[in-house]
Each structure stands twice: as C-alpha cells, then as structure tokens.
Amino acid sequence: MGLTSYWYDQDVKEVRQERMERDKASGKFHELENVDYGPSLLILDNLKGTFYLLVLGLGLSILVFVLELKLNSIFLSKICQIKNYVGIR
Question: Tens digits of per-residue pLDDT, 23-67?
Fold first, then answer.
C-alpha cells in the first residue's frame, strides 16, 4: 500500500463524510444505504470486457498484417512487371 493509495482512501473518506453530513442535514440520510462494504473481489465477469477488447485487438492486428502481406506481394509483382517492361535489371 503506497502513499498515493493512502491519499486516495483519505479523499474518499472525506467525500463520504461530507455527503453523509449533507444528507443528514437534508433528512435524506438512511443508515442502511451508506454502509461501506469495502473493496469487492474481482471475478471473471468483471474482466470480461477487457478480454473482449484484447481478442478484438488481436484479431484486427492479424487482419491488418495479412492485408499488408497481400498488398506487399501485389506491389512487388507490379514493380517486377514494370522493370521487365522498361528493361531494368
């Protein structure tokens, strides 16, 4: 636990305290709604979107790589045709 985590936790506590005081003053405060359960555990459902983006990025990069190889072979064949037509070796 570093210093930045400590500062972040302190800021969160201050904001929560200010909200609780404001809610108490306005009469909107309910004890059960403001219970702090702490950090939650990460499960695979929490990270599902990240893995979808990873797979999408990998698929897109493979597609671009194959397209680049194809365009490169077409470009090189055109250069060879031009060289043969002009007579350059």
Answer: 777 776 665 555 566 677 777 887 888 899 999 999 999 999 999
Print the SS3 string covering the chain: CCHHHHHHHHHHHHHHHHHHHHHHHHCCCCCCCCCCCCCCCCCHHHHHHHHHHHHHHHHHHHHHHHHHHHHHHHHHHHHHHHHHHHCCC
Kindly report the pTM of this predicted structure: 0.46
Q: Confirm if 29 and 23 have CB atoms less than 8 A apart.
A: yes
Please tell me the predicted confidence (pLDDT) of residue 34. 54
44-78 per-residue burial string, b: 16 or more CB within 10 A, e: under 16: eeeeeeeeeeeeeeeeeeeeeeeeeeeeeeeeeee
